[in-house]
Design brief:
Double-stranded beta-helix, alpha+beta, seven-stranded mixed β-sheet, four-stranded antiparallel β-sheet, 29% helix
C-alpha cells in the first residue's frame, strides 16, 4: 500500500492557477510590435539570401537582438510564472513560403528544437491527415480484444478530440497558420493546480501518481531496448513540480502482455486527474498568427474535435506548425525521470525522441 504520509506537499506560486483567473490575467499575453515584425522579416531575408533551408538555420543565422528582451520575458513566464505564453500579431500572409524559416528561427532564439520522431523531424504539421496514420508510420497495434488501437500520433493528426496530456519536451510551441471552420478549441490546465486539488480531495490517489506508471513507446521510438517504460505521473525536485502524462500511452502499455496490469484504484486516479483538469482549465481559440507556448512540466493541454473548411480546389485544413523546445532555463527533474528525458539536469538539452 502507498504511504500517504511520505508524499510531497502542495506547490505554491504562479504555476498553480485556475482557468477563470488566468483568462483575465495579462501576464501570459505578449504581442509583436512593428519593430519586432520588421526584425523578423530582415532575419528571414538574411537566411534566404544565404540559400538556407529552414532546418539548416542556426541561432547565429537568425539573430534577433531587438526581440531578445521580449523572448527573455516569455521564457521567464514559461518557467517561473504561469507556464503559458501566447505571442500574437504575426502577419502570416506577409511571409508566404518563408513562414517555416521564421517559425524555426524564432524557436531557436527561445530554446533548442528537439526531434519529434525517430526520423529526426524538427517541425510537425498538426492537421487532419485523413488517413491511417498508424499504418503509414508503422505504429499499428492490435488490442487484445482484436480491435485496432489508435496511437497518440494518429489522434493528433486527426480532427478528433484530444484528451489532456503533455508532450515529451520542456516547451511545446504551436503557430496557428489556419483555423478550422468550427471547433478545435484548446483546453489548458495547470497540472500543479490539479495536483494540489487531488492532494486535498483524495491524497490516496495523489500518492499513487507518485509511483511508477507503465507507458508504451507506441508512436514514439522505432524500437529500443524496451517497448514500454515506467515513470511516475507526478514528480518534485528542489520544490519544483513536473508531470508527464498521456492516457493513450498508458492504455497502449496495458495491451502488452509483459506490462503489469493496472488496478481499479490506478484508473480511478487517472480518471480524477482528467476530471480536475477539466474543472481547472481555460479555453483558448488560436487565430492565424498566434503563437502558443506551453511548459509541459506544469500544464496539461487538450483539444476539442473540429470540422475543416471543404474546398476541392484549395487546401484550407486547420494547420498548426509545432516545435518541441528544450529550454536553457529549465528546471532540474527527479532522477527517476531520466528514463524519459535522458538528462534531468537544469538547463540540459533534453526530451524529444531519440534517433535509432
Amino acid at each position: 500500500m502507498t504511504n500517504i504520509s511520505n508524499i510531497p506537499h502542495e506547490i505554491d506560486g504562479a504555476c498553480a492557477w485556475h482557468g477563470d483567473a488566468l483568462a483575465d490575467d495579462p501576464r501570459w499575453r505578449f504581442a509583436l510590435s512593428p519593430d519586432n515584425i520588421a526584425e523578423l522579416k530582415a532575419a528571414v531575408a538574411g537566411v534566404r539570401q544565404k540559400g538556407l533551408a529552414w532546418e539548416q538555420i542556426t541561432k547565429a543565422d537568425f539573430s534577433l537582438p531587438g526581440m531578445a528582451p521580449l523572448l527573455a520575458e516569455m521564457a521567464e513566464e514559461l518557467e517561473n510564472g504561469s507556464g503559458l505564453a501566447n505571442l500574437s500579431g504575426l502577419p502570416i500572409a506577409d511571409f508566404g513560403e518563408d513562414l517555416r524559416h521564421l517559425w524555426f528561427g524564432l524557436g531557436l532564439n527561445l530554446g533548442q528544437p528537439v526531434f519529434q520522431d525517430f526520423n529526426g523531424q524538427l517541425m510537425r504539421d498538426i492537421q487532419d491527415e485523413d488517413r491511417n496514420v498508424d499504418a503509414v508510420y508503422g505504429h499499428e497495434l492490435t488490442a487484445r480484444d482484436g480491435s485496432a488501437f489508435k496511437s497518440s500520433k494518429a489522434r493528433t493528426l486527426s480532427n478528433a478530440q484530444l484528451r489532456f496530456h503533455t508532450d515529451r519536451t520542456d516547451v511545446v510551441g504551436l503557430l496557428c497558420v489556419r483555423q478550422a471552420r468550427s471547433g478545435g478549441v484548446s483546453r489548458i490546465a495547470s497540472s500543479v493546480a490539479v495536483h494540489n486539488t487531488m492532494l486535498r480531495r483524495r491524497p490516496d490517489l495523489a500518492a499513487l501518481l507518485y509511483e511508477p506508471c507503465h507507458r508504451a513507446r507506441l508512436g514514439e521510438e522505432r524500437g529500443g531496448e524496451l517497448l514500454s517504460y515506467a515513470l511516475p505521473v507526478f514528480g518534485q525536485r528542489d520544490g519544483r513540480f513536473t508531470s508527464h502524462y498521456s492516457r493513450t500511452y498508458v492504455e497502449a502499455a496495458q495491451e502488452m502482455l509483459e506490462v503489469p496490469r493496472m488496478e481499479a484504484r490506478h484508473w480511478e486516479a487517472l480518471d480524477l486527474l482528467a476530471e480536475l483538469a477539466e474543472e481547472h482549465c481555460m479555453l483558448m481559440t488560436m487565430a492565424p498568427g498566434d503563437m502558443q507556448f506551453i511548459n509541459n512540466h506544469v500544464i496539461y493541454h487538450a483539444r476539442d474535435a473540429y470540422e475543416d473548411h471543404v474546398d476541392p480546389g484549395i487546401d484550407q485544413r486547420r494547420l498548426l506548425h509545432r516545435l518541441w523546445l528544450a529550454m536553457p532555463n529549465s528546471r532540474a527533474l527527479p532522477d527517476d525521470h531520466e528514463v524519459l528525458w535522458r538528462n534531468v539536469a537544469a538547463g540540459a538539452v533534453r526530451g524529444g525522441i531519440e534517433l535509432i
